[in-house]
Amino acid sequence: MLTNWMHYITFAHGWVLGALLLVPILVVEYVRRNRRINAPMLVTTTHFIKDTQSYKTVLRHMLFVLRCLALICFIVVLARPQRKFSQEVTEGEGIDIILCFDISGSMTSQDFAPNRLEASKQVAAEFVKNRPGDRIGIVIFSNLSFTLCPITTDHNTVLNQIDNIQSGYLQDEGTAIGSGLATSVDRLRFSTSKTKIIVLLTDGVDFGGTIPPDIAKDMAKMYNVKVYTIGVGTDGEIQEHVNSPLGMVTQTRKMEFNAPLLQTLAAETGGQYFHATDKDGLQKIYTSINQLEKSKVKVTNYERAVDKFTPWLLAGIIAVLLETLLRYTVFRKFP
Predict the structure, then answer these.
(1) How far apart are CA 149 and CA 139, in angstroms?
(2) 298 Cβ contact list (under 8 Å, min separation 6)
(3) Cβ neighbours of 22 (radius 10 Å)
(4) CA 272 – CA 261 distance, rounded (Å)
(5) How far lies 137's CA from each of 1, 101, 284, in Å?
(6) pLDDT at 64
(7) Three-state SS for 7?
(8) Residue 144: which of 93, 178, 193 has the closest Cα?
């Protein structure tokens, strides 16, 4: 419990805590003085008397313990323990962004480390962290499309949802680029932001789905949405591990890649097309998009502190009152 408290607490006057070194010095001096006062003396005529220690004798050190506890509490109070809170204030105009992920089975190919989808998630998360003030949402698609996270300024939620993306989440296989793009446009349809963009990331040829890419492209143009398309993967052949009746086997598969479609979607909506063949290339692409789409946002961080010395002050006062009460009642000395 004390460890957890210390994790969140800072001290306005931390140097005062150095006074706690007085406590062990006082303890040593008290023990030394007590031993000198109670030095043993052997008297032969009293050997038959039994141990006559009373509860007062046993508890006589309690007054000193209470005094030390009070001293510790008051030193901590003087150090002013505080809990600090950070507050972020955003001023200006941000951009509304939809990150549209292809999560079809081919995104698990391992020409990226550890695979295409995981590499894409890692780089996208860094992109989100570099867009303070922007509203960001997530759409995923395979044969179907689904809004995983509506546009929001709560970037922690966005990052959590990115981390949760898995291939096969939508079960039906396919690469419905048109459906994914259409769903992304629909998320931005009622946006009042002057700039609306979609970052569409895929590694395949459009098939499946109910909305053709041309119709989705026209929707984007209608609502002034720019589409940045990213083609992920190599154009050649890759080695992949697949399950077979004989167990895991390695087979060669030629990658299909429809670059002209992605180029058209980007060019006709005012965006750009990029091709990433590895994770470093993907990182550079997101950096380029970050530079192309700048937000007019000023983020100011404020820190406020709340004093947390009250429990220590009360504990110190209670220790002093208890010591005083015991000294003049139970442990009172009569002349």
Answers:
(1) 7
(2) 90, 91, 92
(3) 13
(4) 12
(5) 38, 11, 21
(6) 86
(7) helix
(8) 178
DSSP-derived 3-state class of residue 301: strand
Coil vs helix vs strand at 64: helix
DSSP per-residue codes, 92-150: EE--EEEEEEE-SGGGG-TTSSS-HHHHHHHHHHHHHHT-TT-EEEEEEESSSEEEEEE
196-202 and 135-141: which strand pairing? unpaired
DSSP 160-224: HHHHH--TTTT-S--B-HHHHHHHHHHHHTT---S-EEEEEEE-S--BSSSS-HHHHHHHHHHTT
pLDDT of residue 112: 84
Q: What are the pLDDT digits (tens) for 157-172?
A: 999 999 999 887 777 7
How many angstroms separate the CA atoms of 217 and 315, rounded?
Answer: 69
Q: Is the pLDDT of residue 273 over 70?
A: yes
> Residue 282 in contact with residue 276, Cβ under 8 Å?
yes
Show the tokens assigned to 301.
């961080």
Domains of the chain as residue ranges with CATH: 2-44+52-85+306-327 (no CATH), 95-294 (3.40.50.410)
Give the three-state DSSP class for 66.
helix
Does residue 114 have a cis bond before it (omega within 30 degrees)?
Answer: yes
Question: Measured on CA atoms in the order 34, 35, 36, 38, is the torsion positive or negative?
Answer: positive
C-alpha span between 304 and 309 (Å, rounded)? 16
- Reported as half-sphere exposure (CB side, CA atoms, 13 A), residue 110 has a value of 8
Q: Is 217 within 8 Å of 184 (Cβ atoms)?
A: no
Q: 219-266: per-residue pLDDT in tens?
A: 999 999 999 999 987 766 666 555 666 666 666 666 666 889 999 999
How big is the CA angle at 99 (ends 94 and 101), to the nearest 5 degrees?
Answer: 180
Please give the single-letter amino acid code of residue 190. Answer: F
- Mean pLDDT in the chain? 83
